[in-house]
Write a structure and sequence with these properties.
Spore Coat Polysaccharide Biosynthesis Protein SpsA, Chain A, alpha/beta
Length: 236
């Protein structure tokens, strides 16, 4: 699939002032004139919005949805996806702003849609892909991956948010069947789309530790995800 379609990249942000401009530059370098970027800001208290305005003044097709409070990463993804469907984009890509989702994979994500409907990234297909991670965080990530795969009987790296959707082939109502508004949205949505028989494929990526800022995921989020996973298991 050649990169000649209208592409929307959705990026939820919360206090990412140092990452906005570098990320925008890297994305535009990869996709050129086909790039449209939508930031979903959950009321950042630093200069994140100022940096987005700066990007809007310098580049075309940079958009911002301002929300009044932290409503959850899953909620931000759903908000952006609904906006993208309404604006009739052909391809939607979701990614993080913390520097761990390298734009170098964007072309591969798009080209891989030719025979698929959803492309996700996988952090476990290559050795030493979690570069710079602490032993504790790496351990928790691998354990979470193992538990989700075992409980839901799916082989994907389903807890990551670096994904690509073929809008023409995927019904938005199926994505929105995932009810969680937090981090569980990622694996819940993949689980649902897998059950709906969509063609899902993966590409391997290297996922470095974030260079600036702090992770938004806390122990409360991890505990809730485990409880929600148990709920989904018995529900299905």
């Amino acid at each position: 699939m050649t990169i000649k379609k209208r592409i929307l990249i959705i990026i939820p942000v919360l206090n990412e002032q140092n990452n906005i401009i570098p990320l925008v530059k890297k994305i535009i370098n990869q996709l050129k004139k086909y790039t449209n970027i939508l930031f979903i800001d959950d009321n950042s208290i630093d200069k994140t919005r100022d940096k987005i305005y700066e990007a809007q003044n310098k580049y075309k097709n940079i958009y911002l949805i301002k929300r009044k409070s932290k409503l959850g990463i899953g909620s931000a993804h759903k908000c952006g996806i609904k906006w993208g469907y309404k604006k009739k984009f052909k391809i939607i890509i979701t990614m993080d702003c913390d520097g761990t989702h390298n734009p170098i994979y964007l072309k591969k994500l798009v080209s891989s849609l030719e025979k698929n409907e959803i492309i996700t990234t996988n952090r476990f297909l290559k050795k030493n892909s979690l570069r710079g991670w602490s032993l504790w965080r790496g351990f928790l990530t691998r354990i979470r991956h193992f538990i989700i795969r075992s409980v839901l009987k799916i082989n994907y790296d389903s807890s990551g948010g670096y994904r690509c959707y073929d809008v023409k082939k995927i019904r938005i109502k199926d994505i929105l069947l995932a009810k969680d508004n937090g981090y569980a949205f990622f694996w819940e949505s993949i689980f649902i789309l897998h059950k709906k028989k969509y063609k899902i494929s993966e590409i391997p990526i290297i996922l470095p530790s974030r260079a600036t800022g702090t992770s938004k995921m806390g122990l409360k989020d991890i505990f809730y995800s485990v409880m929600y996973l148990i709920y989904i298991y018995f529900k299905n």
